[in-house]
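Residues determine shape. Take a concrete instance:
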Amino acid sequence: MKLSVWTYEGPPHVGAMRVATGMTGLHYVLHAPQGDTYADLLFTMIERRNHRPPVTYTTFQARDLGSDTADLFKQTCMDAYERFRPQALIVGASCTAELIQDDPGGLAARMGLPVPVIPLELPSYQRKENWGASETFFQIVRHLAKPCAPTAGLTCNILGGTALGFRHRDDVAEITRLLEGLGIGVNVAAPLGASPADIARLPAAEFNVMLYPEIAEPACRWLEREHGQKYTRTVPIGVGATRDFVAEVAEITGMAPPVRADESQLRLPWWSASVDSTYLTGKRVFIFGDGTHALAAARVARDEMGFEVVGLGCYNREFARDIRAAAKDYGVTPLITDDYLDVEAAIEQVQPEMILGTQMERHIGKRLGIPCAVISAPVHVQDFPARYSPVMGHEGANVLFDTWVHPLVMGLEEHLLHMFREDFEFHDDAGPSHLSGHAKPAPKLEIVPDAPAPEGAFIWAIDAEKELRKIPFFVRGKARRNTETFAAERGIEAISIETLYDAKAHYAR
């Protein structure tokens, strides 16, 4: 396994935790040493859950390796059942415990517990978190879903939502409301909010909604093959994709066309057609995240907000083919990597005006001075808002409008403040005029043109540096690089304001 400061996905047993923690009546017994016991931290601190995740660890230590860790696992299984009385157990090993080869699935199967025991074989050194969640959900469905009588009315299952997913809780609620507006009930939403008993009655629905392909596709394929349930392929993120989703649902269910959901609450289409939106037309955006959200974001960015997509990529290689096909359509080079340093280098190269990415790209954007809106996991606590904030369906389109447009609009406001920094009220030495009392003056930027520069660096004159600071922060880095490239090609070591103007004229041709 590659060690990294940051990682886009954890090991596959974290994916299993996401499924177990999203469900009720299910318990996960994880064979793991001290150090792999971090579920509480993930789900109570980051997701701000009001109860602990249903995960029990064997928590063996170095001294236990000289004895029988298999007995320790069996005792832990029995204790977990006696304490929590779940409807079903899933059992597996963490990446470290996998090395001692105790076979948790086989051990648990021979214990004779009075509930279904589902073994998980999650190869930690070949696979990652999303695959682990997908495989866990598939195994739960395969073991528990049983043939049953169809529901009285037209219903579907909504599949794919998990704990620790990007806005999954609110997405499920929004799509439930959208389907109910079409006269379609929801039989089961799983794994998020479902119990093993709910999983057993999945086949009673007419069809399945595959909300997150990374998690739900194997289960959807199995349900189609074994129980004849069709499933949707369109992910309803954005106005256009939501309309396509409704049309696909109508085709699957045989509804008479034209079928259209109530769009009275949509605000994005009106704004996109307004005069104010022209400020954002053609803004260059770099998009990176999980495959589902990156593909959806690219469509919304170009077709609904008028942005120019200058970069597109994902970190889960299972979606590499889809990303490459989309990148060809957008005329960009696809980026398939799980190394954040590769992503940072790509962003630096194209110098976008905004990034649509993950928590990692948020930090990259801060370092590069580029605004970033988070569109995908991995995320942090600020991306689990207490308010209702989906990214799917009609309200989701409104949320995308807010979270994507505001960084650019606020960037313009900051730019205007920089333009007027010499004004008596806005210059660097002035305190905040809107606060009472005596504010401490902001530290003034010192520019020392005669200071020794590192090898290969350029010396900027004071007036050139001041002029550069008038350029909006989200393109200032590109302007600096262009000017320095222009100067290097002409053998200029000290950049004056004339050099800055000459470079600007050169690249504006």
The radius of gyration is 27 Å.
